[in-house]
Amino acid sequence: MLHRVEGIVIRSMDYGEGNAIITLCTENAGKVGVLVRGAKKVKSRHAALIQPFTLGQYVFFRNNGGLGTLNSGEIMNSHHPIREDLIKAAYGSYACELLDRVLHDEETGSFWFRQLSACLDALEEGKDPGVIINVFEMKILQAAGYGPQLDSCVACGREKPDNELLLSPRLGGALCRSCRHNDPPAMEVSPRALKLLRLFAALDLTRLGNVDVKESTRAELKKNMRAFMDTQLGLRLKSQNFLDQLDKYNI
């Protein structure tokens, strides 16, 4: 059966002699794997269609599910400025790998297609990549059922002033100081960072404007979100390791 989808390339791998298999996050068909014959050969007319972050129309044959075979395609946005910038490419790769690893085929749909598309657009436009990815991570946590509770204490349920709250990645949200015995390693969090985390939880990336974040707050947000991601999802991503290396050398 012939299928036509609008999709974003979230993974591309070599297959056999000159071929490639791409994974698409599509608007209406979930995640789809497509074999692209001859894509790696010199002068292939499909070479541009398999590049990471590419948004396009893909037409492929597929019978009874499984892997499709590309018939034709048309690029709508190549996102080449992301691939040409080391920092943007690193964050874009992380977003794609995170979505691919956390969400099952049936969970991806128009919402995640829009979120990823907005994420890549924001990276290409030069918005703060750390903030973009923190919002994306928050959406991933919420989709996986681990969205943090940030408006009241996760232990006693009472609302407290922001300066009396800590963060407990293990318990899954804010923790008041009176309940710290429930998780002694709970993290200190500034009121500014806590307000931004709540904003990230409420927003989706299609509505993200320019968020002005101080360097110290940006570092705090990264630490907070990394703790939630590591504790709740426990993933080991190649793209995350690369981002860590960039941080190590202050690139």
Please characterize this protein's 3D structure:
The chain has 251 residues and is α+β, with helices and mostly antiparallel strands. It is built from seven helices and eight strands; from the N terminus they run βββββααααβββααα. Helices cover 37% and strands 22% of the residues. It has a five-stranded mixed beta barrel. It has a three-stranded antiparallel sheet with strand order 7-6-8, with no helix packed on it. The model has no long low-confidence stretch (mean pLDDT 92).
Provide key terms for this protein.
251 residues; alpha+beta; five-stranded mixed β-barrel; three-stranded antiparallel sheet; 7 helices; 37% helix; elongated
Explain the layout of strands and helices:
Blueprint: E1 2-15, E2 19-26, E3 31-36, E4 55-61, E5 68-77, H1 80-83, H2 86-102, H3 110-125, H4 129-143, E6 165-168, E7 173-176, E8 187-188, H5 191-202, H6 215-232, H7 238-248
Parallel strand pairs: 3-5
Antiparallel strand pairs: 1-2, 1-4, 2-3, 4-5, 6-7, 6-8
How would you name the oligomeric state of the polypeptide chains in this document?
A: single chain
Largest sheet: 5 strands, mixed, barrel
Mean pLDDT: 92
- Tally of extended strands? 8
Percentage of residues in strands: 15-25%
User: How much helix, percentage-wise, in residues?
Assistant: 25-40%
Biggest sheet: strands side by side, in what order?
A: 1-2-3-5-4
Number of helices: 7
List the uncertain runs: none
Q: What is the molecular shape? A: elongated
Order of helices and strands: EEEEEHHHHEEEHHH
**Alpha-beta content class:** alpha+beta
| Gyration radius, rounded | 20 Å
Tell me the span between the first and last alpha carbons: 47 Å
